Automatic annotation (TrEMBL):
Protein name listed in UniProt: Chemotaxis protein CheA
Claim: Chloroplast is one of the keywords in the record: no
Reported function: Involved in the transmission of sensory signals from the chemoreceptors to the flagellar motors. CheA is autophosphorylated; it can transfer its phosphate group to either CheB or CheY.
Organism: Hymenobacter mucosus
Cellular component annotations (GO), alphabetically ordered: cytoplasm
Domain Histidine kinase: 195-398
Enzyme class, broadest EC rank: transferase
Domain HPt, chain residue ranges per copy: 1-105
Pfam families per UniProt: CheW, H-kinase_dim, HATPase_c, Hpt
């Protein structure tokens, strides 16, 4: 398995070789037409990019040569120097030297001495004549010049999207072939099916791996964002970025860009106090903001952490009651996590109310919807006066997802593992009724529980008040977790866990919010995939 350093070096080499080829082409164009501004601008840009990339990778000699060459092309571009006379051979030699250094990095060889090149470039800047050596050996070195192609290719993301969709179809067929081979019981077919399964798995992971990008490609854009917001708000903010090399599907990163931008702006603008307020609260004048990424099982966790004023849970609870989002009786029994989940409701998006709950909430419903679209989760944790943490729980891929299969009324359903907290089997004595809701103590938490069929088949009316005596025998329950809220769904029986490919529902079923799509099981049976966010919202709307 390649190390991160090796991957970065290969990416650098691919880009650097492209830069070198483009430099060689453009400097030849410039020699034919010294007033070719397009070629000159490209040479300046290429030198600038190579300088930055080389320094970032620690290849200081390449960066130094590119920096001096960039200076010369800048002078030519500003008409302070002309691409004539001895300037021409010096710059051609500079491009060749850069090519030699790039190849040396790729081969792990010692880089050539560039002291004479740097001296000549400096002399050109100072208006002095460069010192040119006998170039007869250089001419011999030039029919033996090697032409090299990069080992890496760049692929449009839409081509990878199409390839991943085809892999998804292959995964469905793989499951059907495996099911058929078990039913038929032919040893030769079973062997072929097992080989097909291994190849499909390898292809799936290879395609998914090709779509991965470093989270740092997004996180490293935030220092400027934080600086601009902090300046506008007259705040002193230190930004720390952790986990830039964590990898995630490029499309997922694209979708959460605006959401992450909003959370960061909110943290600086509303979460962190002014220097004066921080000093009055016994804190340092400088606020601290951390953007971090880490992997957890098959998920990527992105966190926005500030050490600001935190969230006043009491105010959130009061506002939720005032807006009719929850009854006073139910609100009194909600823990802090469940109360903070109200921050993601559209009713909390008004500026006046947001001010009263410590500046949190503006647009958080929109942020949550973006995360929901990926099958992810958005969580918030806070300590009043100490700070707030927003956690984005994201899948590494959006095409193939882990799911729990279960049965209800003789039909198979799937529920994404992303929203599955745990599965438990409870006896009627494990339940109690509070405010018309069925509750149970699961992992030291009071969790509301509802028969899933009541949510799916109860129409538009409210859920009937829970009656404990109606429960008989063992109850199989899936505990789902969405937006800091846990909900137990009573099903008929658990089936198994497996990877599924979720397909959009066809009309008119696509208007039913409770289902996020369909998948095809190995038996050929169509299986509905539950949408946990929609189920949770429905439960909150229909509860007694």
């Amino acid at each position: 398995m390649k190390s991160r350093e090796q991957e970065y070096r290969e990416i650098f080499m691919a880009e650097a070789l492209e830069y070198y080829d483009a430099m060689s082409r453009h400097i030849s164009e410039l020699e034919r037409n010294p007033t070719d501004e397009a070629a000159l601008n490209e040479l300046f840009r290429l030198m600038h990019n190579l300088k930055s990339n080389s320094r970032a990778m620690g290849y200081t000699q390449i960066g130094e040569a590119a920096h001096h060459m960039e200076t010369i092309f800048g002078l030519i571009r500003s008409k302070e120097m002309t691409f004539t006379g001895l300037v021409v051979p010096v710059l051609f030699r500079g491009v060749d030297t850069i090519g030699e250094m790039i190849r040396a990095v790729g081969e792990g060889a010692e880089l050539p001495d560039i002291s004479q090149l740097i001296t000549n470039l400096d002399r050109l800047v100072q208006g002095e004549e460069p010192i040119l050596e006998d170039d007869s050996d250089e001419d011999d070195e030039d029919a033996n010049r090697k032409l090299e192609l990069s080992d890496l290719v760049y692929i449009q993301i839409k081509k990878l999207d199409h390839l991943l969709n085809l892999v998804g179809e292959l995964i469905i067929d793989r499951d059907r072939v495996l099911t058929l081979s078990r039913e038929i019981g032919n040893p030769a077919l079973a062997t072929a099916a097992a080989h097909f399964s291994r190849i499909a798995d390898e292809l799936q992971y290879s395609v998914m791996d090709a779509r991965l990008v470093n989270v740092g490609s997004l996180l490293n854009k935030f220092p400027r964002v934080v600086r601009d917001v902090a300046t506008a708000e007259k705040k002193d903010v230190e930004l720390t970025i952790v986990g830039e090399d964590i990898q995630i599907d490029r499309n997922i990163l694209q979708i959460i860009t605006d959401a992450l931008l909003h959370l960061v702006r909110n943290a600086v603008g509303h979460g962190l106090e002014t220097p004066a307020d921080r000093l009055a609260a016994g804190k340092s004048a400088q606020g601290h903001l951390t953007l971090s990424a880490q992997t957890q099982r098959d998920e990527v966790l992105l966190q926005v952490v500030d050490d600001g004023r935190g969230i006043n849970v009491g105010n959130v609870r009061r506002k939720a009651i005032e807006r009719g989002l929850v009854s006073q009786e139910v609100a009194a029994n909600l823990d802090d996590d469940a109360v903070r989940a109200f921050l993601f409701e559209p009713g909390f998006s008004m500026a006046k109310e947001v001010t009263e709950i410590s500046g949190r909430g503006v647009g958080l419903d929109v942020v949550k919807l973006a995360i929901d679209s990926l099958g992810g989760q958005l969580r918030v944790d806070s300590v009043l006066g100490e700070g707030t943490t927003f956690t984005l729980v994201l899948p590494t891929s959006i095409a193939v997802k882990g799911a729990l299969l279960f049965e209800l009324d003789a039909r198979s359903y799937a529920i994404p593992l992303m929203h599955t907290d745990s599965v438990v089997s409870l006896q009627p004595t494990d339940f109690h009724v509070v405010g018309g809701l069925l509750m149970s103590r699961v992992q030291d938490e009071n969790v509301p529980v509802v028969p899933l069929r009541n949510l799916l088949h109860n129409g538009d009316g409210p859920l009937p008040p829970a009656v404990k005596g109606e429960l008989t025998g063992r109850q199989d329950i899936i505990i789902v977790n969405y937006s800091n809220r846990k909900l137990g769904l009573i099903v008929d029986r658990f089936l198994r866990q497996q990877d599924i490919v979720i397909k959009p529902m066809s009309k008119p079923l696509d208007t039913i919010d409770l289902f996020g799509g369909v998948t095809l099981l190995g038996s050929g049976q169509v299986c509905l995939v539950l949408d946990v966010p929609a189920l949770t919202r429905l439960f909150l709307a229909k509860r007694p």
